[in-house]
Structure formats: C-alpha cells, structure tokens
Design goal:
Distance between the termini: 67 Å
InterPro entries: AAA+_ATPase (IPR003593), AB_hydrolase_fold (IPR029058), ABC_transporter-like_ATP-bd (IPR003439), ABC_transporter-like_CS (IPR017871), Galactose-bd-like_sf (IPR008979), P-loop_NTPase (IPR027417), Xaa-Pro-like_dom (IPR000383), Xaa-Pro_dipept_C (IPR013736)
Strand content: 15-25%
Number of domains: 5
Number of strands: 45
Family: Belongs to the ABC transporter superfamily.
Pfam family, one: PepX_C
GO molecular function: ATP binding; ATP hydrolysis activity; dipeptidyl-peptidase activity
Helix content: 25-40%
CATH topology of the largest domain: Rossmann fold
Protein name: ABC-2 type transport system ATP-binding protein
Radius of gyration: 34 Å
CATH superfamily of the largest domain: Alpha/Beta hydrolase fold, catalytic domain
Structural class: alpha+beta
Number of helices: 24
C-alpha cells in the first residue's frame, strides 16, 4: 500500500527500501505521477493551526501531529478529517485539505500513529488504536467554535482518505456514529481477501465485480505484502535514526554512538528495529509468519480481520462514496463491490465510482480533478445540504480495447454513468453475455520451488504492463489455454467474468492462476491491467479422468474486446507475484463441459464525454495537463464564492416541514414547480390539492430527497432535506406505488422493510402498524394474492412503521371501499392528534375536506391558496341561513332573490343562498329589515366548489 496524495498521488518517504524507490522512479519516468495543482487565490484566506494531540492512555498513549485548516468567513462550518495513505503523512493530503478549506470546510489533516512525526506504532487501523485516534480527533473538532454541531459533542463531520486512509474512513463510520458522510478511495474490504485471495466458488450477488473468498485459505500475495511491510518497517529518517534517536516513534531506543558502531547497541533493540521498524508486535509477528509459511493461519487472519471493514459494514449509516481503481492489483474492484453490498444492505446511501487508475497507475490530472470534485460535491450535499444531489448511481470509465495491428487504444477517456449499481439494493442483477470456449484437457506442470515463474504483473506497475501491449511471460508447459471463436461483435466487459473448470491434482490440492487475455487477429495478446485471479483449490479429485468441477471468478476489469478478437482464458501454475508450492506436481485442467461458456458482465449506461483514439504512450502527455490547472483553480474559486453553509432552523421542532421558494425546472425548459413556499406545523393534517400536472407529486418527491430542487430549500424539522439526510429517519412515506415484494406475505414485507432501516425491531411498533393494515389472517398470505385495496393498506402500515414524526401519503385511499376510507380517515386524525404531522395528496376532495385540517392548493406548479379547510371553503359567496321559524322560509327566499344577483333555495342542509358577490352583511340586514328572525348566517360551500373556483373547471 504505497502512500497516496489525496486520491491517487504517491509520495514515498526518504529512506524507503530500494523496491519502493525503483517503483517511484519508474512511475516518474513514464509520466504517471500527477502534479499537484497550485493553490488558488483563496489560499491566502485559509488559516492553519499546528498542534500535537494526545490520544489513548497509559502505554498506548501517542501524540498525533495535526494541522487544522480554517476557512475564511464567519459562522460554524462542517468539518472533514483527511487520512493519508500507507507510508504517508499529513503532508501527503495538504493540497486536498487546503482545497476543501477554500470550499468552506474546517479540515483536519493528521499523521497516523507511527507515520510522519506522530509517535506510537502502526496498528494497521486497529479499532483499539487508529480508530480510537479518529474519535479523539472528532472530540477535538466538537470543541471548536468554527465547527458546526449536530448536538453537544457531535460535530457535523465527514472523513475521506485513500487506501490506508480509506479503510480508516470505513472503520471510523462503523465505530463512531457521529461521522455524517465518508468518501473512502482505493481501499480494502477484507484485508485477508486482499493479501490471501482465492477466486474459487459460487457467489450469487447480482453485482458486477463480486469475488468469492475462502475465509480459511488463499494464495499469499508475496510481492505486494513485502512492499507493504517494507515501507512500514523503515523508521522515519532511516533505520539508524530509529536505533539512535531516543524516543523516535514513541519507542525508547539507545542513542547511536558517533562512529555508528552497531556493536555498542542493545542487540534486542537492533533486531526489533531492523525486523519490525514502526509496526506493533502483533502486526510484525503476523507478517513474519505469513512471509515464512505463505499460509493464512487463524492467528494471521485474526490480525487482518480486525483491521477489515468487511466485518462491520452493517454498522455504517453515513452516506458513502466508494471510489475504486480499475488498475489495481492490490485492492481490486471486488473490494469496492463487497463494501457497497455490505453498506447498502443497511439501507445506507451508496454511490460507486470506478476510475482509470489505482495502486498500479496514478490517474490523469483530469481524472484526479474530477474525483476530487466528486468528493467535495458529496460532502457539500450530505454535510451542508447544498449542491446537486450526487445520487446513488454508478460511474465507470468507458471500456477500451486494443487494435492488434497498430497498438492503438480504442475508446479515449469517456465516463459511463448508470442510474444504479447492478444488484445493489433493489437494482436488477448485472447482465452477463455467454461466450463459448473451446479446448481439451491439458496438463499443467508446477516446477519445484515454483521456479521459473510466469511474469504477469509488478506491484505498482500492473497497469503499465497491460498498456505495453500486455507484455507478459507465460512459461511453456505451465499453463492451459481455452479460447473463444473470433467475436462477431465487440464485447464490453464491466466487472468480473466467471467460468467453470474441471481440475484434478495428485495431492488433492492445487495453486493456480486464472487470467483473461485479449487476442487480436494478428496474434498479439493483452492482459487487461495485468490482473490475475489466484485459485487456492482443495478437495480436488486425484483422478484425471474424473476431475472436480470448480467455478472460477476472473479479475474485475473494464475492457472492450473488439470485433474479430478472441477471448483466451489461461490457467497457469506459477506467478512471480505470489507464494508458490515448493513441491513439483502435474495438474490436469479442462473446461467443465463441452458447452462451457465465459459469463462476461456488461453494464449499460450513458457516456458523459467522448475522447479520441490514442496510442498507449500518449499517457506520457499527461504533463501537458498542467496548462489546465489555471482553469481548475478558477473553478474552485467560483465554487468557493458560491458556497452556502447549511444551518438548522431554530423553530424546526415546531415546523416539521417548510418549503421556501422551491422551484424544480428540467433541462428541456419544463418547470414542474415554481417558487413554492408553505409550512406545516405539528398536529396538522395537510391536504395537498391540485389537478393533474399541478406539481404535487414532484413536490413530494423533492421533500423525500428523491429529486433535488433547482432553487430554494426544503427543511424537515429544521434540517435540509436530501438523499441520505439523517432527518429522513423521522419521515414515513408512501408515494407512487406500494413497492411490496409479491412473493412475500404482508407481514414479511413489513419485517423486511424495517430490517432494511437497520433499526432495532422493538422500535418498529409492528403491532400498531398491523392494526392499521386490518388484514387479519390475510396478512400472512403472499401479497400477489392481495386486492389493490389490501396492498394499499399494507403500504400505508409500512409507512407508519416506527411511528414517524412526519407521515407523507400520496393517494392513500386508492382501492379502498367506503368503510375502509372512513377507518383510514379516523387513523390519520388520531395519528396527528398525538402531535405528529400528516401530509396527504389526493384527488378525492370530499376526503380531504373530512380528513384534513389544512390545505395547500396548487395549479400549474404554483401555490394559489393556503389555509385551514374552513378558510378555503368559506372564501366563496354561498351562505347557510338558519331561521328561527321555518315558516318564514318562503318569505326569506323572496327577500334574498330580490337582491341583485342573489339566488336562494331549499337544500338538505337547509336554506342556502348564493350571494354571487353581494355583501353578506347587506344580505343579513335585508332579512332582519323584513322582520325575519335569523339564527345562523354562515359561509357554506363544499371544498369541491372552492377548488373549482380557485383552479377553474378545466
């Protein structure tokens, strides 16, 4: 895990081992290092404060070196904690911190324990140490006047970081619920799966890049692990500094004599410094055991799993932006896939972004700038409640292919955007194209000691290897190959393909490596991004005539196989990047059956921008992107000038819902809602009325955070509404269809919905909701056997689970018979009588009149009236006339109809007069003047009459 500057920029410390220096030099020579943009004009407005923060207690206490970036302007602002990559320090994220501060955030950058000048030992994001340190820093932010608070001791805060820092963001959100949004990048889900991968077995998730993992075994990723430990074991300033530097990194060590003679030092201190460096004892022991045996022992697994988000993803409630690189042989796309599945299962909003870069290749300036902007936009929306809704979609680089004859990269630099990440939440499963493969049973030799070994990837250079026409070295006799026919059309693979193989081994176990090559018509081969799928196979048949069938998942890639190209699956016995068996053996490898296919995942989307065709070496021209930095700085300054700091309205608890100047306009010029302003108070039942196209449903969708207003603000209990906003947990809704699962019973639908919220079952008030449904024994029958009215009642009960403080219902009485409508009316009235608030949108005006206390009338996207039902009904010219003596009725009608424009007559309710603009007082005076005793003279008309008068019959 090399250090990262922000998203993808490496920064190797002085004194790192030779391997690290060689990798950095190679990246620099090939032009893949991304230059940091210069500070914008706003940089002068950002103030910094340096401090050392004590975290932990006793022997575990450390001092963390921190820098606090304070933005210009008045008033508290949300905060962001920036965590650096492995081997880095707070300086690695300095430019990103300043850019966020210029955008209006209070930013805290720090060096993790064991890095930079922070003391202590590396615990590998151990919850007891590094994650506890993060909570200490959040405590510090809560004490700053410049930081916006959600509650006493609870700052509005987000966390971002790459690789090591990305895992810290995930683990931090799982252990500290004060974190409000996170943006982890190119990081891991399971550290065991990352360092001991095995792509064997079936995994039915429906997501594009899911990879199975045996929790008890895997193939040791030897080169990456060695580089990782090498960077971390070199003490700050070099090994000799650690041996003679007093209390460097919190460890008391002997002072180095002037002559530098190691014989004068404590041998134990020398050995520890040379072998473990800055790592804690448990981490050092785990690495030494793994390096010596190449085996995932329970002890090693315990250390790695403790530092893995995989085990605590169900705790994460902070909206999560997952950014992962397609050029990453350390943490592949499968890690982001696993994190997305685990977090979304808790009902937490998740957006997934794949980009062309990763640990093997820094992204271009354009990509880095775009990702930096996406992180800032994510925090703008989820911490401030400003800016466009980033949604929960999926973005990936447009698949690129290789022309075999010319070496040209086809596709350019487009980004493809999909509305949903396939298989996540309610999204449909990823589509897979079946590609037929051919090839017979083939022997595969494993050489003694694993030498010579196939060369497919180098840590940090895997993507470069793939770009160099897929330069690899497969050893003859050590691999089996299975090919498709030349493709009769291009196939774009987005995710991890799968294939079924049949394998036998003399000892019942085998270590193999599966790869998917792109073979051009001229025979040139390309291994996309140099990615390999290790296979740790156990329980195999020892009989080549009766092999064991296994399902293999190939690496997650984004690649276009061009028309006329061939897909070639290669299964080899060696790979120099991994630990290999010492004993020689001969395996038998075949396709599972004659009709075996490669299942290639494909994802449809819309390309946002198009690029041209270029040779792979055009990557060297990345330095030319420096000319764009001025424009980037200007854009950042413009965003800084336009920023708006979110706030909590002081009367929020008394005003559950407030629309302020809300407008929703679409790109085609259509304005669905225009300058809508109204508020709803506690205990009210508000009816939202309007003809079709009035903007009612659009308004409800905006308040629920499903779409974002173009202008204006919507607040719920004083907090800005939007996707993932914590305040939405106080809202229950039923809008645009029931959304019930037809194969489940009504009761199971209610339980499933509540389980998706992640809240305790006892908070659901399930029995109260079931009483609302009123289905009796039918509640336990499948929903597909329900009538429309029964479905409607279950959906309303679902909206009322947890007894939300704000209940929003769109056409709740559709499909209900009159007795059920009457019962629903009583439920809603009594619900509001408890101090909660109900909003009902309906076309049944009589039900609104009998159910609601207040009404907002809309037409053509605008509010045309608001008030109590009595006020709206009483705004017309009809009056109910009550007479002391019914015998005077005919005489009263004659008097009233003698007035200009007035008509009168008997009704079931009594004598009703339509004054048609004639003054009420004058009409009453005319009756009294005629000697008629009047007991009642009140406005009288139906809500329907008022509605038609306000919006017009058409």
């Amino acid at each position: 895990m090399r250090p990262l500057r922000g998203l993808v920029r490496p920064r190797l410390r002085p004194g790192a081992r030779g391997t690290s220096a060689v990798l950095a030099a190679l990246l620099l020579v090939t032009g893949l290092l991304v230059l940091a943009p210069p500070a914008s004009a706003a940089a002068d407005e950002v103030r910094t404060e340096e401090s050392r923060v004590v975290s932990g207690s006793g022997a575990d206490a450390v001092e963390l070196d921190t820098t606090l970036y304070l933005p210009a302007g008045q008033g508290p602002a949300p905060a962001v904690v920036l965590a650096h990559g492995f081997g880095g320090s707070k300086q690695s994220v300095a430019d990103d911190a300043r850019a966020l501060a210029e955008r209006g955030y209070v930013v805290l950058a720090y060096s993790a324990r064991g890095f930079g000048t922070s003391t202590g030992e590396i615990g590998l994001n151990d919850p007891r140490y590094e994650i506890a340190d993060l909570s200490t820093l959040i405590d510090l932010l809560a004490e700053r006047d410049q930081v916006e608070l959600d509650a006493d001791g609870d700052p509005r805060v987000g966390v971002a970081g790459g690789s090591y820092g990305g895992a810290l963001a995930l683990l931090g959100a799982a252990y500290d619920d004060r974190i409000d949004a996170i943006a982890p990048q190119i990081t891991w889900s399971s550290l065991s799966a990352a360092l001991f991968p095995s792509h064997v077995g079936e995994l039915d998730t429906g997501t594009p890049a899911a990879v199975p993992q045996d929790a008890d075994s895997g193939v040791y990723k030897r080169l990456w692990s060695g580089l990782f430990f090498g960077v971390g074991s070199v003490p700050t300033g070099g090994i000799l500094d650690a041996l003679g530097g007093g209390t460097a990194n919190g460890n008391s060590v002997p002072e180095l004599p002037e002559a530098g003679d190691l014989s004068d030092l404590d041998p134990a201190a020398v050995e520890r410094a040379l072998t473990c460096g800055r790592f804690g004892a448990e981490i050092c022991a785990a690495y030494q055991e793994a390096a010596a045996t190449g085996t995932l022992t329970p002890e090693v697994a315990a250390v790695l799993d403790r530092s893995s988000p995989a085990g605590v993803l169900d705790r994460i409630e902070a909206p999560t932006l997952l950014i992962q690189g397609t050029q990453d042989s350390l943490f592949g796309l499968d890690h982001a896939d696993a994190n997305a599945r685990g977090i979304a299962a808790n009902g937490t909003p998740v957006k997934v972004v794949w980009y062309a870069g990763g640990h093997d290749s820094s992204g271009s300036d354009r990509i880095v700038d775009d990702l930096r902007g996406q992180v800032a936009d994510w925090f703008d929306f989820h911490l401030r409640g400003t800016g466009e809704d980033p949604g929960t979609g999926f973005e990936f680089p447009a698949p690129q292919g290789i022309s075999g004859s010319s070496g040209f990269v086809q596709g350019g630099t487009r980004t493809v955007v999909a509305d949903e990440y396939p298989g996540l939440g309610g999204a449909a499963a990823v589509e897979r194209t079946e590609i037929a493969l051919g090839g017979g049973t083939q022997p595969v030799v494993t050489p003694a000691g694993g030498t010579p070994a196939a060369l497919t990837t180098l840590p940090g250079l895997g993507a470069l290897s793939g770009a160099l026409s897929g330069t690899t070295l497969e050893i003859p006799g050590q691999f089996a190959a299975f090919e498709s026919e030349p493709l009769d059309g291009a196939v774009e693979v987005v995710g991890a393909p799968t294939v079924d193989l049949a394998v036998s081994a003399p000892g019942g176990t085998a270590t193999l490596f599966a790869k998917l090559y792109d073979v051009a018509p001229g025979g040139a081969t390309t291994l996309p991004n140099g990615l390999v799928a290790p296979l740790a196979l156990t329980g195999l048949s020892t009989d080549p005539t009766d092999p064991t069938e296994v399902t293999v998942t190939l690496p997650g890639i984004v690649h276009r196989f061009e028309d006329g190209h061939t897909m070639r699956v290669v299964v080899s016995s060696t790979d120099q990047a991994y630990a290999l068996p010492a004993e020689a053996a001969v395996y038998s490898v075949a396709l599972a059956s004659e009709g075996t296919t490669l299942a290639a995942p494909q994802v449809a989307g819309v390309a946002e921008s198009a690029g041209g065709t270029s040779r792979w070496w055009v990557l060297l021209a990345v330095l030319a992107g420096v000319g764009l930095l001025g424009w980037v700085a200007a854009m950042l300054w413009g965003r800084h000038r336009r920023r708006q700091v979110s706030h909590v309205e002081p009367d929020g608890e008394d005003v559950p819902l407030r629309f302020e100047g809300v407008t929703k306009a679409y790109k085609d010029g259509f304005v669905a809602v225009r300058d809508l302003s109204f508020e709803v108070r506690r205990g009210q039942v508000l009816g939202l009325l309007g003809p079709n196209g009035a903007g009612k449903t659009t308004s409800l969708r905006m308040l629920m955070g499903l779409i974002r207003p173009t202008e204006g603000r919507i607040s719920i209990f004083g907090h800005a509404a939007g996707p993932g906003a914590p305040v939405l947990s106080r809202l229950g809704s039923f809008v645009e269809g029931t959304g019930l699962q037809p194969h489940l019973s009504g009761r199971d639908n209610l339980r499933l919905y509540w389980a998706a919220t992640g809240r305790p079952l006892e908070d659901a008030h399930m029995e109260e909701a079931i009483e609302v449904a009123g289905l009796g024994a039918a509640l336990d029958r499948p929903v597909r056997r329900y009538s429309q009215g029964m479905r409607q009642r279950v959906a309303i009960a679902q909206a009322m689970l947890g007894l939300p403080d704000l209940l929003v219902l769109d056409e709740p009485t559709n499909g209900l018979d009159p007795p059920q409508i009457h019962a629903m009316r009583e439920v809603l009235r009594s619900y509001a009588a408890t101090g909660r608030t109900v909003i009902v949108s309906s076309h049944l005006l009589s039900e609104i009149e009998q159910t609601c206390s207040h009404v907002v009338v809309m037409a053509k996207g605008q509010k045309i009236a608001q008030g109590t039902v009595e006020e709206i009904v009483g705004a017309g010219g009809a009056v109910l006339v009550g007479l002391a003596d019914d015998a005077d009725t005919d005489r009263a009608i004659a008097v009233l109809e003698g007035l200009p424009g007035v008509s009168a007559g008997r009704t079931d309710d009594g004598l009703v007069a339509d004054l048609d603009g004639y003054g009420r007082a004058a009409a009453l005076q005319a009756l009294v003047g005629a000697g008629i005793a009047v007991d009642e003279f009140t406005p009288r008309r139906r809500l329907e009459d008022a509605f038609l008068a306000l919006v017009g019959e058409n």
